[in-house]
């Protein structure tokens, strides 16, 4: 069974912040040679791919919000025995020039210097990034609180969307706008461009035009990013008018999701570590079993047929990046998604199907999960 996991937030949240930070420094220090010095800055990196890697590493080390580390500043990491020493170099004598209270920096023993107070540096290479990424897969309690924060804000955005779904001549733009407003009103950002795909637009898994009138159903794939940079990634499919075929497709996707959950629970109970590649095959096998309910009886349903309608992978780790550090293993401490879907894109389908499926477009159900230290599966977004 799936554990009901409640994140209890302590009254002394700042003390938890400091304690988690210190533990993180100890873990990082064990990965490198004592005396090693590394500098991180997106300011010196021309490759956009590496920019995406470096910023989360900086946040992971410092646990500082995005606003505390601007693109024009950089971080010096000195490896000590069972600790690290951090210095943030900025254009100004306060972080990002915004005059933030530096009390927390003193508690963390982080030094603050002007950018011109150094003579030499070396750019952090992929080696240090890869090593720290191995730690990022396992989320500590501080990170879990931040991710839950992003999930709750995403929940608020979805509730705001659901409150207007019965409006006549509703446009996808209306859904995106109310979701964005819900986030921005409370100082949150978006983890990625929202997908608000009405009817046949849901057949495109990365659809983001969000400019069409919605008639019968909508696929939402949206996520908040909290002020500390942590992300949520959740998908829901809602019907606006009664549609028996929609309900059949939805039921198949939901049964596939439950089969994936069962695989993880059973694997953990056996003392083993679940893997995404097996999880993906569980999803495919469930579709092979159930797609006959919506496809013509003369179609022999094999994996090739499934791949026509199921056109992406089953899930991914989530953290400071939506598609976070990749690892096939789903270890205790992992936060990840399970997101089965079925898509009816006329350009991809070479067999005869019910044309009403093309009007539905696509259905995806995506939740976020956590493997507890006790090897239990917890759904973090089940209330949405």
Structural write-up:
With 384 residues, the chain is an alpha+beta fold. It has helices at residues 13-29, 48-62, 103-107, 126-136, 141-162, 172-184, 244-269, 276-290, 303-309, 355-360, and strands spanning 37-40, 74-80, 83-90, 110-114, 189-190, 195-198, 217-222, 224-225, 234-239, 335-338, 341-343, 362-364, 367-371, 377-379. It folds into two domains: 13-136, no CATH class; 141-379, Creatine Amidinohydrolase. The strands form five sheets. The chain has a four-stranded mixed β-sheet. A three-stranded antiparallel β-sheet has the order 6-7-9, sandwiched between helices. It has a three-stranded antiparallel β-sheet with strand order 10-13-14, covered by helices on one side. Helix 8 packs across helix 9. The relative contact order is 0.13.
Please mark out the parts with pLDDT under 50 across 5 or more consecutive residues, or reply none.
Answer: none
CATH class of the largest domain: Alpha Beta
Residues in helices, as a percent range: 25-40%
Query: What is the CATH fold-level name of the largest domain?
Result: Creatine Amidinohydrolase
How many individual domains? 2
Which structural class fits the helix and strand makeup? alpha+beta
Q: How would the global form be characterised? A: globular
Beta content = 15-25%
Number of helices: 10
The number of distinct β-strands equals 14
CATH architecture of the largest domain: Alpha-Beta Complex
**Name given to the CATH homologous superfamily of the largest domain:** Creatinase/methionine aminopeptidase superfamily
């Amino acid at each position: 069974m799936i554990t009901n996991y409640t994140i209890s937030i302590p009254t002394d949240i700042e003390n938890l912040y400091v304690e988690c930070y210190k533990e993180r420094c100890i873990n990082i220090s064990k990965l490198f040679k004592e005396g090693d010095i590394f500098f991180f800055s997106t300011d010196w990196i021309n490759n956009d791919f590496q920019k995406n890697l470096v910023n989360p590493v900086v946040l992971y080390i410092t646990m500082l919000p995005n606003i505390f580390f601007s693109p024009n500043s950089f971080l010096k990491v000195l490896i000590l025995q069972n600790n690290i020493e951090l210095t943030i170099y900025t254009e100004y004598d306060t972080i990002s020039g915004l005059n933030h209270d530096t009390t927390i920096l003193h508690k963390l023993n982080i030094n603050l210097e002007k950018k011109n107070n150094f003579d030499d540096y070396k750019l952090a290479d992929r080696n240090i990034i890869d090593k720290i990424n191995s730690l990022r897969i396992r989320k500590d309690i501080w990170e879990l609180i931040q991710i839950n924060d992003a999930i709750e804000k995403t929940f608020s955005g979805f509730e705001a969307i659901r409150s207007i779904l019965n409006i006549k001549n509703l446009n996808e733009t209306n859904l995106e706008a109310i979701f964005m407003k819900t986030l921005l009103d409370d100082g949150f950002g978006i983890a990625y461009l929202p997908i608000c795909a009405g009817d046949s637009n849901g057949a495109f898994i990365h659809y983001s035009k969000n400019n069409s009138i919605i008639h019968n159903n909508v696929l939402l794939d949206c996520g908040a990013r909290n002020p500390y940079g942590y992300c949520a990634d959740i998908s829901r499919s809602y019907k606006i008018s009664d549609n028996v075929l929609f309900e059949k497709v939805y039921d198949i996707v939901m049964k596939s999701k439950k089969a994936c959950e069962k695989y993880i629970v059973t694997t953990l109970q056996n003392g083993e570590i679940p893997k995404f590649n097996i999880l993906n095959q569980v999803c495919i096998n469930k579709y092979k079993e159930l797609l006959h309910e919506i496809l013509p009886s003369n179609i022999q349903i094999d994996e090739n047929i499934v791949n026509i309608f199921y056109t992406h992978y089953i899930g991914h780790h989530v953290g400071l990046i939506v598609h976070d550090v990749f690892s096939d293993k789903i270890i205790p401490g992992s936060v990840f998604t399970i997101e089965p879907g079925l898509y009816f894109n006329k350009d991809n389908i070479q067999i005869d199907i019910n044309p009403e499926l093309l009007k539905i477009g696509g259905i995806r159900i995506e939740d976020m999960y956590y493997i507890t230290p006790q090897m239990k599966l917890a759904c973090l977004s089940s209330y949405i």
